[in-house]
């Protein structure tokens, strides 16, 4: 009978009677559990709705559509780097590497990452960023040492090559790894086209991965696979086991041979004519 009467009571009165019949410790435990439940619900709502809206609303604004100079990413002045590549200009060798550093998908984050990277190399190696240029994960080109400056990216080849570092770690098989995207590849090619136009790269330049020249995993599996599809990729690896002077001599001799052959053919044609 008592249970029937309790069941017929309004819900608030029924809950109040139950609460009065519990101990103080039990009531405190229930209150704590309720607070935890409310907090969990609020956190779920925040991270699934509000935080997502905040991320989606972030606008990626940069000083230039794709080419970011040192001044634009607020780089300090050059540090212990004055050597030039003039002796070997226009350069025939482009070396692709990866930075094995955190990814960045916004200009502000990439600029901060470059400054962090620069600080690391200054502190531990006493020089500036090792690469001539870097490619952000959002597809922008960032000026490192720039054109006509000797890099510090690939031992024995720095004086006669252009070093490009893709930000991230592109080694497949890791729990998390970077995946090169089309915009990164497109912007890298735009940079190389610019290098040819301004005269720092030879029109017949070759592209290699760092692993083609040294014992290294750089530029990582999927980035290495991507550059092998480029028109300028050197499948014959003309540069392995050569120093910069030998590379220069090799191409000078090759040019002389081609020139001599052309002159000889013209002479023969004229005589026959």
Automatic annotation (TrEMBL):
Coiled-coil stretches: none
One GO-annotated biological process of the protein: innate immune response
Family from the record: Belongs to the N-acetylmuramoyl-L-alanine amidase 2 family.
Superkingdom assignment: Eukaryota
Domain N-acetylmuramoyl-L-alanine amidase: 80-220
Membrane spanning stretches: 28-49
Classification via CDD domains: PGRP (cd06583)
Residues of the Peptidoglycan recognition protein family domain: 68-214
Xref: PANTHER family: PEPTIDOGLYCAN RECOGNITION PROTEIN, PEPTIDOGLYCAN-RECOGNITION PROTEIN SA
Gene3D superfamilies: Peptidoglycan recognition protein-like
Protein name in UniProt: Peptidoglycan recognition protein
Molecular function in Gene Ontology: N-acetylmuramoyl-L-alanine amidase activity; zinc ion binding
Keywords: Immunity, Innate immunity, Membrane, Transmembrane, Transmembrane helix
Assembly mode: Monomer.
A Pfam cross-reference name: Amidase_2
